[in-house]
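Many introductory courses stop at the sequence. We go one step further.
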Amino acid sequence: MSNQDLKLQPRQSRFVLEGIVLQIICESGRPKVLWLATAQGEYEIKVSRCACYGLTQWPQPGDGLQVTGERKYKPEKDKLKFKADGLYPIPAASLPTMQPTTPSSGCPAAKAKILVCQGSDCRARGARAVQQKLEQTLDDRGLTNQVTVKSTGCMHCCKKGPVVVFMPDKNRYQQVTPTQIPTLVSENIMSEEIKPETCSTYSR
């Protein structure tokens, strides 16, 4: 069933999808969001707490998985939202048309967004220059079509600005300077494992 067909369904209904796990993001020791490759395409699915009950181990990229849950169509955004309430491992071999795909080297692992606080205190500490350096770095690396940079209001870390948050992992960096931006982009957006130099970071 195509995404267009799904949009014609009731605005809230049940779904069952089978495919290969592409990526999983965990928070507080459990899966929070997963990406599933199916015969119909790739889906981003939020994982409810109850979906994890009964699992002896968390799914890993490359595993076969049946996912059940609720889907909602939001007409104002013209977008379907999926939330899983059941995760059921299945043999990947039973999905012969499913091939796990991994991002090519140097490409973002998932759709990314970078939030830059532009509250008055952060601006006074150089947030505009930080955002300009972010945009320049993404442009230099050919990532402007895959990554969005967005200004936000105050993030309530006024004495530790500028503050930058990399989504979807919610990695937050404080007292960021323009010279640190290339390293942060490499660590959070690119697939290379490069450690940040002097920024302090914690998960939101």
